[in-house]
Amino acid sequence: MSYYETMYIVHPALEAGRLKDLILSVESTLKDFGGKTHTIEAWGKKKLAYPINKEKYGMYVLFQFEADGTKNKEFNTTLDHNTNILAYLTTKIEKDGLIEDVKSLDSQLGLLNKEEPTTDKAEDVKEEDNSEDNQEETVEETVEETSEKQEDK
Amino acid sequence: MAGLSYQKKICPFKENKDLVKMINYKEYKFLRKFLTDQGKIIPGYVTGVSAKYQRMIAKEIKKARNIALLPYHVDPRNI
Fold first, then answer.
1. Measured between alpha carbons, how far is A31 from A65 in angstroms, rounded to an integer?
2. What percent of chain A has pLDDT over 90?
3. Closest chain A CA to residue B71
4. How many angstroms away from the CA of A1 is the closest CA of chain B?
5. How many domains is chain B built from?
6. Are A7 and B70 an interchain contact pair (Cβ–Cβ within 8 Å)?
7. b (16+ CB within 10 A) / e for B33-46
8. What is the pLDDT of residues A70-89, one digit of tens each?
9. In the list A9, A44, B44, B47, which could disulfide-bond A112, CB 3.0-4.6 Å?
């Protein structure tokens, strides 16, 4: 088993929820090929150095995993067939190239959307769960707000 | 050698070994130093980078070009 990383560019029109679905689907295809996920890092929306499929922007995602290299070709072809992925690059990396201490995917994507309130609320809920203060009302309010936002989306 | 005396440049990667880690396609902003405005790779005899590290830089720049982190070429009229 050795370490690999795939960097791929997702179509910029995908919203946060669908972006997460795509990232998870890529992860699940890797699992089918017997790989083991190490880290997923979303770089966010960047301007491309040159247009790909007439798109000037793209969402960069870095995906590090452990696998034996026999199925990498098949993994790359699945990325090729996905129309929402503009480009990808799979490279072999050394163990010291692995990125540690990456935030959870949800928080990364939350920060990318610049919808800070959602992440703040999540933190608030966690804190209140830990302390178990008599602030249940505020928790309910925040939950309602988040549900409303999801409906808006 | 008439009149051709010049000071030999020192390779920045041999002076500072920590810089070697920066030769990676993900550090595309650093690799931009080794490109001209038109996006061409600057030869090692201009920048003073030794052949060993110049090979690594060229490879990583080509990787970064593959996924549109760095340009293949820039039209000089747009600079």
1. 10
2. 45
3. A49
4. 22
5. 1
6. no
7. ebbeeebebeebee
8. 889 999 999 999 999 999 99
9. A44
- The superfamily in CATH containing domain A2-94 is Ribosomal protein S6/Translation elongation factor EF1B (3.30.70.60)
Place of tokens 């920590």: B18
CATH of the domain at B28: 4.10.640.10
Q: Does residue B66 form part of some domain?
A: yes
Domain that holds residue B20: 12-78
The answer to whether B71 contacts A62, with C-beta atoms less than 8 Å apart, is: no
For residue B3, being part of any structural domain is answered with: no
Put simply, whether A85 touches B (Cβ < 8 Å) is: no
Report CB contact under 8 Å: B68, A7. Answer: no
Cα–Cα distances in angstroms (integers) from residue A95 to residues A3, A38, A74, A98, in the given order: 7, 11, 23, 6
* pTM attached to this predicted model: 0.75
User: In this complex, do B68 and A49 lie within 8 Å of one another by their Cβ atoms?
Assistant: yes
CA–CA distances in Å: residue A142 to residues A18, A129, A136, B29: 23, 13, 10, 40
Q: Which of A8, A50, A58 sits opposite B72 (nearest CB)?
A: A50
